[in-house]
Amino acid sequence: MHTTLHLPGRRRTCAAVATVLALAALTGTGAAHAGAAGRQALPAGCSGTSPIICHYSVAPGNYDVSVSLGGATAAGQTDVWAEARRLLLPTTKTAAGTSATYGFTVNVRQPEGQPTGQGGTGTAGLDLRFSGTSPQVAAVSVNPAAHSLAAYLAGDSTVCDQPAAPYTGWGQMITTAVGPGAVIANYGDSGESSGSFLSNAALFPALLAKVAANDLVFIQFGHNDKQTAAAAYRNNLTTMITRVRAKGALPVLVTPPVRRLFSGNLLTPTALHVNGVGVNLPAEMRAVATAENTPLIDLTAKSKALVESLGPSASAQLYLRSSADGVTDNTHFSQYGAGRIARLVLQGIREQHLSLTPYLR
Question: The pTM is what?
Answer without folding.
Answer: 0.91
